Amino acid sequence: MAQARECAAEPSRLERLGCYDALFLTFDEAAVSEDLRPALWHAINAQEAEREGDDMGLLVREEGEDVRISAPALGSVPPRPQLVIACEKTITRFQIHLPQALDAPRVQVRLRAGGRELEQVWQARDGGYVVSGGRGLPAIATLQQLLDADELALGSDQATLDGLRFETAGLRQAIQPLRDACRW
């Protein structure tokens, strides 16, 4: 307790903060190597592990109030990037999950599907393992334009994403449980 009083007596805010950190912050090496991938990334990875044979179509799983839809990238070798459409905590999410982290905070993306082309800026999140096309209303607006497409193709300034293709045939029907869960 005496050391804490010494820290409190430090006139400089920065030095005082450093003193408290040195006194109370416990350094855990396990925390440094913490997995940056979110629970949804792991859930989708487990979901994709259940995939049967050569099936590359949409895989839908419902767990409680949450709904997860995934599809692996066509023409790529495992571990593959994965298209992810999810209703998690009643929020719609539209993402690409990557096996290797992307080293760019923002990414230019062209979505081509069903004769339509959309240009968007997506954000890399969760250490670069998740590239987010939006959540909530922006995700819903994009998804509504993809409902009748058989395939989604991406173009990007990032080689990791450029040329990715996903089978989306039947999305209008497959997404119905997600629409019900996320109330749209």
How would you describe what is shown here?
With 184 residues, this protein is α+β, with helices and mostly antiparallel strands. It has helices spanning 2-8, 13-24, 29-32, 39-49, 137-144, 171-174, 176-182; strands at 59-63, 66-72, 82-88, 91-97, 106-113, 116-125, 130-135, 151-156, 165-167. It has 2 domains: 2-32, no CATH class; 39-182, Immunoglobulin-like (Sandwich), CATH 2.60.40. It is built from 7 helices and 9 strands. The chain has a 9-stranded antiparallel beta sheet, sandwiched between helices. Strand 3 and strand 4 (91-97) form a beta hairpin. Helix 1 (2-8) runs antiparallel to helix 2. The model has no long low-confidence stretch (mean pLDDT 92).
Relevant terms:
184 residues; alpha+beta; Immunoglobulin-like; 2 domains
